Amino acid sequence: MTLLSYQVFMAVVEQESFQKAAQVLQLTPSAISHAVAGMESELGFPLFIRSKQGVYLTNYGKELFPYIKNVLNSDEYLHQAVAQFNGLQKGVVRVGVFNSACVEWMPSLLKGFEQEYPNVQLDIYQGTYDDVYHWLKDGVVDVGFLSASSVGELANDPIYKDRIVCVVPKDFKTEHPGYITIEELKKQHFVTQREGCDADVNNVMTKYGLPGGGGSYIVDDMSAISLVMGGYGVCLVPELVMRKMPFPVDIYPLEVKEERTIVLAYARGDVFAPAVSRVREYILEQFEGELNHEV
């Protein structure tokens, strides 16, 4: 199989259509179809399920996906290295990021990095902790923002500490001015996010035996805070979540100090492509000293 075959495979996966993949690669739909058929013939098994709803990977295709992605990543890294040898800084770097980090940090990071390295393109992939972790493992993204509790065995650099706080409706009164106790929290109804969306909060709730959400399976922070605003319950969130949240709610620190550590994680920790190295260095510079601030 050729590099073009792998590019066709990835374009079909991303576009879920032979027609759209052809447009992206500037080929004819027939050429895409022939390339896929050639790969399937050479491999001896089907890669895609064709249906009226779209084109999707078979189980065989899903198994091969990370390997093909790694081949394409290696080709991109090779081009970046050649560009560096020629005195250029160019390439594409894909960054995975969870919601609150995306809202709070990515606008300024993107703008600042683009000004310093205009020939390096940053592609942003937003998702849950689980999404970012698997994107890193499968080579979909090069670097990713994660919590230390979700990074697993991936190489990483800790960059930020973020305390866990309690969000309550405006008319809520705590038993102690200025903070909320664990015993008080045990009496509350909680709005909780779906498993895999906020492992740090889930860990805190488990640690102190706090009640579950009882029917709330929320994915995004804004929806959870909206339910709190409406009086459905209270919730625990990392403080970063509330920085730009536009809802009229109150925020209380816990009587105990609980926090999450945010890390910058990597698909590979042993070697970095030139453009990936520039992104890593730039982000670490922006967060220098943040780990030592009081939360």
From TrEMBL:
In this chain the HTH lysR-type domain maps to 1-58
- PROSITE patterns registered for this protein in UniProt: HTH_LYSR
Q: What protein family does this chain belong to?
A: Belongs to the LysR transcriptional regulatory family.
Whether NAD counts among this entry's keywords is no
Upper lineage is:
Bacteria, Bacillati, Bacillota, Clostridia, Lachnospirales
The name this protein carries in UniProt is: LysR family transcriptional regulator
Q: Which organism is it from?
A: Hominiventricola filiformis
Q: Which UniProt keywords apply?
A: DNA-binding, Transcription, Transcription regulation
Asked whether the UniProt record includes Transcription regulation among its keywords, one would answer yes
One Pfam assignment = LysR_substrate
User: InterPro entries from the entry?
Assistant: HTH-type_LysR_regulators (IPR050950), LysR_HTH_N (IPR000847), LysR_subst-bd (IPR005119), WH-like_DNA-bd_sf (IPR036388), WH_DNA-bd_sf (IPR036390)
Which molecular-function annotations from GO does this UniProt entry contain? Answer: DNA binding; DNA-binding transcription factor activity
GO cellular component term, pick one: cytosol
CDD domains listed in its UniProt record = PBP2_LTTR_substrate
**Coiled-coil ranges per the record?**
none
